[in-house]
Amino acid sequence: MNFLIVPGLNGSNEAHWQSRWEKTNSNFSRVEQSNWQLAHHDDWLANLDAAVQRSGPETILIAHSLGCLLVANWAAQTTKSIRGAFLVAPPDPHSPQFPNTAIGFDHLSKAPLPFPSMVVTSSNDPYASLEFAIHTATAWGSSWKNLGAYGHINVDSGFGDWPAGLALLNQLLSQCQQLELSANMV
After folding, report:
1. What value, to the nearest 5°, has the Cα angle with vertex 56 and ends 55 and 58?
2. Where are the domains of the chain?
3. Strands, sheet with 143-146, edge to edge from the N-terminal-most edge strand
4. Comparing C-alpha atoms, which of 181, 173, 180 is closest to residue 62?
5. What would you measure as the largest C-alpha separation in the chain, in angstroms?
6. Distance CA 9, CA 5 (A)
7. What separation in angstroms does the CA of 66 have from each of 18, 102, 186?
């Protein structure tokens, strides 16, 4: 199984849970973007698609923030298959706090994701209301976990190694394996 990190705007610095997970697990890699400070949707989408192509179908995407929107939009237009997606703190592209340096992300696919997924949110995320989080997780057909009042689930919110996040990722992996077992029994 391969794990592909999909950071949001500005990437994920060394202290971010995504970077820490990547550093301590040899089967984790990261989608690279040419410009982390200025996100052009179509460029980022092409880079995600190329990274998934390299990683192969036995891949779980691990996205944070803007990366979640990218994964949803990628899933709506790709023919590639993956095992699942772990989507943490998806922002509302129509929120007044949504950064103007994220260009072309104003259309968010609300189509069900064609793979198992989990959306992890916070009740006081400055970039998304709880209502948006619930609606988005439901539209995507994702399981949903609300952590409580933990901001944007990033370094500024006190998230470093985030072992509880790894436990949630393991729950998603169990979902993926159960789905595979069910498919093999048919």
Report:
1. 105
2. 2-185
3. 28-30, 2-6, 59-64, 84-88, 117-121, 143-146
4. 173
5. 48
6. 13
7. 14, 8, 37
C-alpha–C-alpha distance, residues 136 and 85, integer Å = 14
Threshold 0.85, pTM exceeds: yes
**Does the structure show a pLDDT above 60 at 185?**
no
- CATH numeric code, 2-185: 3.40.50.1820
Calpha distance 128→98 (Å, rounded) = 9
The dihedral built from the CA positions of residue 104, 107, 112 and 118, taken in this order, carries a sign that is: positive
Do the Cβ atoms of 4 and 51 come closer than 8 Å? yes
In sequence order, what DSSP letters do the residues of 104-145 get, joined into one string? Answer: T-S----SPPSS-EEEEE-TT-TTS-HHHHHHHHHHHT-EEE
Q: Residue 17 in contact with residue 160, Cβ under 8 Å?
A: yes
β-bridge mates for residue 117, sequence order: 85
121-143 burial, b for 16+ CB within 10 Å, e for fewer? bbeebebbeeebbeebbeebebe
d(CA 120, CA 138): 12
Give 80-119 pLDDT, tens digit per residue: 999 999 999 999 999 999 999 999 999 999 999 999 999 9
Q: Where are the beta strands (DSSP E) in the chain?
A: 2-6, 28-30, 39-40, 59-64, 84-88, 102-103, 117-121, 143-146
pLDDT at site 178: 75
